[in-house]
Amino acid sequence: MYGYTGKILHIDLGTRKTWIEEKPESWYKLYIGGVSMAARLLWENIEVGCDPLSPGNPICIANGIFAGTPVPVGGKYGLASKSPLTGWIGDSLSGSWFSVALKRTGWDGMVIHGASDNWITLLIDDERVQFRDATKLLGLGTYATEEAIRDELADDQIRSATIGPAGENGVLFANVTNDGRQAGRTGHGAVWGSKKLKAISVRGTHGVTVADPETLMKMSFDISETSQGPYTSKYRLLGTATNVLNMNKLGLLPTRNYQEGTFEDAELVSGEYLEEHYKVKKIACAQCPIACEQMSAAADGPYKGAMTGIEYECLFANGPNLGINDLRAVIKLIETCDQGGMDAMSGGVTVSWAMETFERGIFTKEDFKCAKYPEGFEPNFGNAEAAVTLMEMIRDREGIGDLLSKGTRRASAIVDAERGTETYKWAMNSKGLESPGYDARGLKTFAVGIAVGTRGGCHNRTAAYDPDIQGEVDRFSIDDTRGRLAARTEEYAAVYDTLPLCKFIRRCFTGKADRAGAWPAIAALINATTGWEFEYDDVDLIGVRAHTIKKAFNIREGWTRADDDLPYRWKHDPMTKGASAGHVVTDEELEYLKDLYYEAKGWTPEGLIPKEKLLELGMDDVAEEIGV
Amino acid sequence: MNILVEFVGVSRVLTGEQNLTLPLAPDSSYRDVIRQLGARFPALIGQVIALDGETLLPENQIALNGKRMLQLSEMDASPAEGERLTFMSILAGG
């Protein structure tokens, strides 16, 4: 087999045993890599109904098909476990050197079972596996942990994926970090922490054998060259932070816990302002010629010295959504999340829920007592110091931080049960995953895309905002095209998440980002890597299968149609200002959109998958278990 | 007739402008707007405006009053008096 070794490494942290599973080439042709292969490994290695924080929830890692090759933006891997935040499938992507080093160890993927009695790290040193004591690493931030492991092993080529204090403490939206990148969403850090696994380090020395190196090299060179042109200018010049002003102009920028879609100080927290005042340098992932990460630092003020990479999603969540107009405070908040090992999106949106709950008089100053402020503090929107303190309290699960560490769905349910309130009405999540920076009230195709999303409130797994924003459809109304559009965009995104390739390269194959523009080139890259004979339709099926295995996981865990929902606010509270004012997604609209979507997928009206559909995809064992 | 042109993202970096009021001759089209801006800000050509000088490169779009994006089929239509045209990169990711 070219491009793969055919070997999955299994490790049991409890028994400290390891074993090798060999997979046939036919299995790789179905699941490829990234989130699809990781989800498939999860499907095969977990018992239904498993507690996500129990030893039975495996950590499944699947490398990318192009990791360690010259293919631009192909150095990425997928991670899957059952999410402790949502209770559904938790799949995330991260990229860069960890992925490349893992490829060079010779393992296509890993499944980590059980739990350790004491804190450990794993060292995957080519074929060898070491269980190493992690006592000295406890309490260290994510970046410091990576450095400490390199120092301890006296090898600067060691690459590690780590958790921070938030993962150790069981914050349900804790994440996993490597090389400054995060497998950010759905709480993988809490799963690792529950197993007392502080880090996985890899040292790989093997080469990667591909079928047609000459073609792969030429195509990679051409794509890299194109990527230095106008198709990626946005990412190279300003990064995704430039979305702030765009979203503000369209009235879609979540502001003060999604109460509005325009922020009066958007200019002050924009990517353009960041570039002018706080940007330090640009960073690229391994194998990436684009370099979109805008490393930024607070040069003065109370957060002087704070430094981290800034992306749109963490920027909206910790800036406008908290009513904060000082980028130095935003940098500090995101740094707190990144170093602490927490999802900055869920973190920001959970803090904004707490701020609104305080402003509505349900929380009082007393609720915010902590070691730093023994009398409590008042977390009004715009209070940067309060936001930073709250984020630190969440990381440490101190005081009210313990409640907030559970995310908005659980926190609101607990408060509402204890106090007889209705704070769920401004708890911004879908399936328990906090909402992204695209307000669905003004994006009605996206509304169904995010409601049906297998991992919950995520912009990345559904690209259904695309037809809305580009004007392919009227973004404020619904019609019978939306189910098909949501299905098609979701499967399109799933192709990139499975290979995985960073989506920012999508236009660099031919200038066109659609299937016709990208799939033939992607098929050629797959074929040059593996020696297979993939064509356009085979690439399309990669996305269909990737989404189907994740959906199948949720169905097996008890998913029903009612679980495909939107936050209450998006269904009932219209915004009052800006270009998207006056709109909501009504329950009637949402149910109609779900009907359209299930029909477009070829599923039953209840959203279940017919057996024959699964058999067509070659997923026979899945058909046996959940097909109808 | 006057319209308001706003630049965000790449177009702002290249022009150094946040916004400007653009006087237009009667019956001017959106295509004419792009031509005028290309002539005034040559740095936009090849980065935001296509080499033909009258259409946008992929990855770029124009929002009309923040409500919707100008479509290729509308390039020969005329802007309305006071219309707000925002030049922006295609929204994606985060």
Summarize the helices and strands and which ones pair or pack.
The complex is a heterodimer of chains A (628) and B (94).
Chain A: E1 7-12, E2 17-22, H1 25-31, H2 34-45, E3 59-63, E4 76-82, E5 89-95, H3 97-105, E6 109-113, E7 120-125, E8 128-133, H4 142-153, E9 159-162, H5 165-169, E10 176-178, E11 181-183, H6 188-194, E12 197-203, H7 213-226, H8 233-237, H9 243-250, H10 271-277, E13 279-283, E14 293-297, E15 307-310, H11 312-318, H12 327-340, H13 344-359, H14 384-396, H15 400-404, H16 407-419, E16 429-430, E17 433-434, H17 444-451, H18 465-469, H19 482-498, H20 515-530, H21 536-556, H22 568-572, H23 587-601, H24 611-616, H25 620-626
Parallel strand pairs in A: 1-6, 7-12
Antiparallel strand pairs in A: 1-2, 3-4, 3-6, 4-5, 7-8, 9-10, 9-12, 10-11, 13-14, 14-15, 16-17
Helix pairs in contact in A: 2-21, 7-20, 11-13, 12-14, 17-19, 17-23, 19-21, 19-23, 20-21
Chain B: E1 2-7, H1 10-15, E2 19-23, H2 30-40, E3 60-64, E4 68-69, E5 84-89
Parallel strand pairs in B: 1-5
Antiparallel strand pairs in B: 1-2, 3-4, 3-5
Description:
The complex is a heterodimer of chains A (628) and B (94). Chain A has 628 residues and is α+β, with helices and mostly antiparallel strands. Chain A has 3 domains: 7-203, Aldehyde Ferredoxin Oxidoreductase,  A, domain 1 (4-Layer Sandwich), CATH 3.60.9.10; 232-424, Aldehyde Ferredoxin Oxidoreductase Protein, subunit A, domain 2; 433-566 and 586-626, Aldehyde Ferredoxin Oxidoreductase Protein, subunit A, domain 3 (Orthogonal Bundle), CATH 1.10.599. Helix content of chain A is 40%, strand content 13%. Chain B has 94 residues and is an alpha+beta fold. Chain B has a single domain (2-89), classed as Beta-grasp domain (Ubiquitin-like (UB roll)), CATH 3.10.20. Helices cover 18% and strands 26% of the residues of chain B. Chain B is built from 2 helices and 5 strands; from the N terminus they run E-H-E-H-E-E-E. Chain B has helices at 10-15, 30-40, and strands at residues 2-7, 19-23, 60-64, 68-69, 84-89. Chain B starts with a strand and ends in a 5-residue tail after the last strand. The model of chain B has no long low-confidence stretch (mean pLDDT 95).
